[in-house]
Amino acid sequence: MVSEEQNHNVSRRQFLTYTLTGVGGFMAAGIILPMARFAIDPVLQAESAGDMKAVASVDDLTDQPQRFDFSYEQEDAWVTSEVTETAWIYQEGDEIIALSPTCTHLGCTVGWEANQDHPKEFFCPCHGGRFKKDGTNIEGTPPTEPLHKYEVEVQQGTVYVGKAESQV
Ligand code: FES
């Protein structure tokens, strides 16, 4: 009888030990994994920053900005996801210009000639932000810096873009 009770107590103790170990482990994982991710992320970003993505054929370009969407797989610690981005690309002489569609005011998406009242400009519908063809922000509208510009490379007739960077 005593022995059975002892077994019962031991089993409760074990249960408590397992439970506390489990909860402790779960809490430790909650603290350690984000720290590990924080440590690994810059390495992953550095790798993807060097990647150039094929976006368009040079033959398709004109002297007017055209929208090109491109997708690629992004690995973020444990998750691989497909990311789609956009570039507004045009050719001026020998130079190929690729601009980010992200408004530098609060991040809405701009469009070329998206507003009839402002032809030959990029227009942001959120707060009326406007940009010239080269991405320069138009004074008197909310954005305070130009659209970001993608790094561009041409290989065998294909336009590749890298990271979009500030023009200031
Ligand atoms: S987000 Fe574009 S003007 Fe405000």
UniProtKB/TrEMBL annotation:
Superkingdom as given in the UniProt entry: Bacteria
Bilayer-crossing regions: 15-36
PROSITE patterns associated with the record: RIESKE, TAT
Transport among keywords: yes
Boundaries of every Rieske domain copy: 65-161
Record carries keyword Electron transport: yes
GO MF annotation terms: 2 iron, 2 sulfur cluster binding; metal ion binding; monooxygenase activity; oxidoreductase activity, acting on paired donors, with incorporation or reduction of molecular oxygen
InterPro entries named in the record: Rieske_2Fe-2S, Rieske_2Fe-2S_sf, Rieske_Fe-S_prot, TAT_signal
Complex formation: The main subunits of the menaquinol:cytochrome c complex are a Rieske-type iron-sulfur protein (QcrA), a cytochrome b (QcrB) and a cytochrome c (QcrC).
Functional summary from the UniProt entry: Component of the menaquinol:cytochrome c reductase complex. The Rieske protein is a high potential 2Fe-2S protein.
Family, similarity comment: Belongs to the Rieske iron-sulfur protein family.
Protein name as annotated: Menaquinol:cytochrome c reductase iron-sulfur subunit
Organism field: Salibacterium salarium
